[in-house]
Amino acid sequence: MTPDNSVQLIPVPGIPLIKPGDDLAEIITQQLAAANLTLQDGDVVALAQKIVSKSEGRLVNLRQVVASERAHQIAPLADKNPRHVQVILDESREVIWVSPGIFVVETHHGFVCANAGVDRSNIEQPGAEEGDIWLALLPKDPNQSAATLKTRFKELTGANIAVLINDTHGRPFRMGGVGVALGTAGLVALVDERGERDMFGYTLQNTVVATGDELAGAASLLMGQAAEATPVVLIRGMRYRQPKQPDTGAADLVRPPNKDVFRYPANRKEF
Amino acid sequence: MTPDNSVQLIPVPGIPLIKPGDDLAEIITQQLAAANLTLQDGDVVALAQKIVSKSEGRLVNLRQVVASERAHQIAPLADKNPRHVQVILDESREVIWVSPGIFVVETHHGFVCANAGVDRSNIEQPGAEEGDIWLALLPKDPNQSAATLKTRFKELTGANIAVLINDTHGRPFRMGGVGVALGTAGLVALVDERGERDMFGYTLQNTVVATGDELAGAASLLMGQAAEATPVVLIRGMRYRQPKQPDTGAADLVRPPNKDVFRYPANRKEF
Q: How far does the CA of residue A35 sit from the closest CA of chain B (Å)?
């Protein structure tokens, strides 16, 4: 028996390899139907960033990249191919640090992550020649990608759902990566409960919850990275908040520099 | 219809206010029974840190605390009562930084978090006098707390389950708090998939996943902080890995100083 107020995390089976131009919402709707599932109002569809990037053609053939002098300087420090470094630099607005095997940047979106989210695994590109190495970049505007998918799901199924595009990021202080929301549409990703009262009537002081990232972490539990990869997870039964319009999506989860005391110690006003 | 391989997040209803000495596993087992639920092998029971702390009597009456000179120095910077600061200092091995309203420390467990996890909300202590302010401290050894609960659940129900004690922490780079695992028993909290091969036969390079924190985030989605608080969530259907013995629990998720390039820039070897 599953109580009415439970939340289900449902892996969507049988998602094929995604190619540029694929209609992801249509493919997912078909695979849900094959599993006797129909989207319902309030569902959240979580998609691994990689399949969104591939469907949008955010792919680079390493053979066609010309490495700059800076990329050549960084490459041996990062223990990476200079062309690969160039692709990461092109996706970044700031290099945070480099050490062997670790290349952390701030992307143009403001994500602080390894390798600007650029990844070489699981790429199969039509017309690829032997020896080609293809890299998948993050979506250019993941919130827009999520919004476009949300609209397409509505067209195909009539359901008002939320869409979440997730990735795995490492973090300071804690070991291991966790799911994070790169883009969302149709849900409040950052929930501010300050000023609400708790069970005893105290006013809560510090309760701002990154619901978008918690949903991404939940979906990530079922996605896996290796052979059994499941790039789409349906989250059903979650009582999330509806966003105001325009929907700012997961951009709310990016910490602005003036609130970042780690990278900018000048923000630590005292002590 | 819910597919067999889905994961359910089930809020456990009707958990009463917890007092020191309460048998949490017994209370939870009773409330599950009242909801027609029985623990099964492989279930994960996620408990909010506060109820574990209260059941263990990890409570301090602010009236009985004597503030040191250091606490008096920090108090105006943190905009907190000096006695409250003293309690946080007693729970910490290092002050990371202080600014108005923000007091970040490293706890004796190694958690980098605000206020050493010390919290004043939702405390109702027997024998409390008017004007008393009670603070709840983190469990002294959250992995041991989880292991003890796991054993007690086994005694009461016969089920081999995993136990997770979770809290909400802020993070650098990202806005809002997310659920994190303070303690676990019976599951691998940090899953190392390096060396496994992906769908195309590439060897995965950087796939170490903080499953314990992702489970904590998932449970946190249902816990809420305010009036409707639900301090216990049953996670059913999750295929987690069994830990080696001795079970190191969520201690694996704490980043050791020699792998921390943020707090210790000397660890950034290059660039």
A: 8
- pTM beyond cutoff 0.90: yes
What is the ipTM, given to two decimal places? Answer: 0.93
Which of A4, A18, A106, A178 to mutate against chain B (most B CBs within 10 Å)?
A178
Q: Is the omega angle on the peptide bond into residue B246 within 30 degrees of 0, that is, cis?
A: yes
Which among B173, B195, B202, B270 has a CA at the least distance from the CA of A135? B202
| Cross-chain residue pair A255–B175, CB shorter than 8 Å | yes
**Average pLDDT per 10 consecutive residues for chain B, totaling 271 residues:** 82 93 98 96 97 95 94 92 95 89 90 91 60 90 98 98 96 93 98 69 70 97 72 96 95 87 67 48
Which chain A residues touch B101 with a CB distance below 8 Å?
A: 205
CA B16/CA B59 separation, integer angstroms: 18
Min CA distance, A69 vs chain B (Å)? 15
Tell me, yes or no, if B24 comes closer than 8 A to chain A by beta carbon: no
Q: Give tens-digit pLDDT for A54-104.
A: 999 999 999 899 999 999 999 999 888 999 999 999 999 999 888 777 789
d(CA B271, CA B262): 14
What are the residue ranges of helices labelled H in B79-197? 82-90, 142-157
- Residue B23 backbone phi and psi in degrees, to 5: -90, 95
Smallest Cα distance from A209 to chain B, Å? 5
Classify A218 as helix, strand or coil: helix
Exposure string for B95-121, b = 16+ CB within 10 A, e = fewer:
bbbbbeebbbbbbebbbbbbbbbbbbb
Residue A5 has phi, psi (to 5 degrees) of -95, 20
Q: What is the DSSP string of B126-142?
A: TTPPTT--EEEPPPSSH
Whether chain A has a CB inside 8 Å of the CB on B217: the answer is yes
Chain A contact for B94, CB < 8 A? no
The contacts of residue A4 (CB under 8 Å, 6+ apart) are: none
Q: In this structure, what DSSP letter does residue B21 have?
A: T
Q: Which of B148, B116, B109, B113 is nearest to B135 (CA)?
A: B116
Rounded-to-integer distance, Cα A196 and Cα A205, Å: 9
